[in-house]
Q: What sequence folds into this?
């Protein structure tokens, strides 16, 4: 048999010019950090240094919050139509510079270019267009309620969808008349800083968007600043809990989008090949660095062996490697720390007694990589069945009846998403009705639209992003 291989098809990095060093974006200006300290950001696929960004301290946060407060005086007095036009302009500029953003996202974070190009960037632009459409219709939506913006919103985001999480946060906040101080994650700050250039290009009034970089300590300074009116956080449940504690007793709004351990339930009457494809997408999309990843595969016992065989065969064809290669399915793990976390959980799974299947692809020499992995023979008590691995690792459990499927699916501290695969519409509705999950996908997985609210239950957090619900997260009752 001839072993046909794909030829390389590398997206050129030349479209982006990465500066040696970046500054914060505060009050409409690019300013050196008062801390005078910087942190490195590397490419996780090569471990090469890409650039340095500010490690912002208290003085930097003070000036960004002050500037957002001044920006609010201007922004909140504009007409809704004027705010809408700015958001529309930002959306158009993102579309124009889409390739540049996609390449930078893949370089800084390690995700495959086909995902940053065909998923992240189109979704980013769609979010700004969508919320531009709402900005001048808020009074029509809640005619009986009197709502007003919070004022200055602190926004803290993770590294898995850096620019998309920025869009989910900034677009609805601005559409509702708030101003923001946003901190991107330590390992993926570059697209947020490029977005600052878009704000400048769009002529956004100074102080409406402030981007400050740093680490967890910088995030904590934003949370604890006395002039912050609301915090919107996406990240781990652990840090979410810390933030909730810090805000207790203070008049500060809060939304938390936290972790997940989603069940992807496949009934015996499902279209098996279609379900295999959906399960692969559910866990291997973005290296499994997805809060709503379908990381627990729940198979009806009667189809277990057949399904696992097909799944392993399909996994063998996943191409792992250079994020800038247009054929790559799975890119680099975002950081050494994340790779260590995945490795240790997988080792624990093996010690517990799980049966591990990993694809035998060749991995690049430098950078952080993890083979697509599948666990069978797993007990619900194992860590790999309970903890969020946040990597390309799928854990399989079995069930006999729909009641049992629902019981296992809900037997988790999380409640962010779930998937159901069956040819029977009534079974989809029966199951979805009983799942404690913010989103339930039926015969598909990981589908997003700006008009569809997203968010969790239980330890996956509270508040919604997207849709009308997402607007309400940035509005409060007028006193
Ligand atoms: P993380 O450690 O909680 O970090 C998230 C953000 O918070 C980063 O910007 C981080 O800064 C900052 N931060 C860290 N410590 C802080 C503190 N004490 N106070 C304030 N901010 C602090 O999470 P992660 O490991 O980056 O991201 C993965 C997690 O995010 C997963 O659990 C995933 O499920 C969740 N997630 C949820 C959603 C959702 O919509 N529900 C979406 C994406 C990801 P540094 O990066 O500089 O440390
Ligand atoms: Mg990086």
A:
């Amino acid at each position: 048999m001839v072993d046909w291989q794909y030829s390389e098809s590398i997206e050129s990095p030349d479209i982006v010019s990465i500066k040696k060093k970046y500054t914060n974006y505060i009050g409409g200006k690019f300013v050196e950090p008062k801390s005078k300290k910087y942190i490195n950001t590397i490419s996780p696929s090569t471990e090469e240094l890409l650039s340095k960004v500010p490690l912002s301290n208290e003085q930097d946060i003070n000036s960004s919050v002050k500037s957002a407060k001044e920006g609010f005086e201007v922004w909140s007095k504009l007409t809704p139509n004027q705010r809408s036009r700015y958001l529309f302009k930002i959306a158009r500029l993102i579309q124009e510079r889409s390739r540049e953003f996609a390449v930078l996202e893949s370089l800084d974070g390690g995700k495959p270019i086909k995902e940053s190009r065909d998923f992240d960037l189109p979704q980013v632009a769609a979010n700004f267009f969508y919320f531009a459409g709402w900005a001048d219709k808020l009074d029509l939506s809640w005619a009986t309620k009197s709502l007003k913006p919070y004022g200055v919103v602190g926004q803290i985001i993770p590294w898995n969808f850096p620019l998309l999480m920025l869009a989910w946060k900034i677009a609805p906040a601005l559409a509702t008349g708030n101003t923001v101080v946003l901190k991107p994650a330590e390992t993926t700050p570059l697209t947020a800083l490029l977005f600052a250039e878009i704000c400048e290009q769009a002529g956004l009034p100074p102080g409406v968007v402030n981007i400050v970089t740093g680490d967890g300590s910088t995030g904590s300074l934003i949370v604890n600043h006395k002039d912050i009116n609301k915090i919107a956080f996406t990240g781990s449940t652990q840090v979410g809990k810390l933030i909730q504690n810090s805000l207790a007793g203070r008049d500060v709004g809060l939304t938390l989008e936290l972790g997940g351990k989603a069940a992807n339930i496949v009934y015996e009457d499902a279209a098996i090949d279609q379900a295999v494809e959906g399960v692969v997408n559910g866990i291997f999309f973005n290296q499994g660095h997805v809060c709503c990843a379908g990381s627990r595969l729940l198979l009806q016992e009667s189809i277990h062996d057949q399904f696992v065989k097909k799944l392993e065969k399909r996994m063998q064809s996943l191409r792992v490697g250079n994020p800038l290669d247009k054929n790559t399915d799975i890119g680099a793990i975002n950081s050494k720390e994340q790779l260590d976390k995945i490795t240790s959980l997988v080792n624990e799974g093996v010690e517990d007694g799980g049966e591990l299947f990993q694809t035998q692809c060749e991995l690049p020499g430098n950078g952080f990589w993890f083979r697509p992995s599948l666990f069978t023979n797993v007990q619900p008590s194992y860590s790999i069945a309970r903890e969020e691995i946040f990597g390309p690792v799928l854990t399989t459990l079995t069930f006999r009846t729909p009641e049992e499927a629902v019981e296992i699916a809900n037997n988790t501290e999380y409640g962010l998403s779930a998937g159901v695969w069956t040819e029977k519409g009534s079974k989809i509705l029966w199951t979805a009705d009983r799942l404690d999950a913010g989103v339930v996908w039926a015969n598909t997985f990981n589908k997003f639209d700006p008009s569809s609210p997203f968010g969790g239950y239980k330890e996956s957090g509270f508040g919604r992003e997207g849709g009308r619900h997402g607007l309400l997260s940035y509005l409060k009752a007028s006193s």
Observations:
- The CA atoms of residues 173 and 474 lie 6 Å apart.
- The first strand starts at residue 24 and ends at 26.
- The chain has two domains: 13-258+460-477, 263-449.
- The longest helix spans residues 113-135.
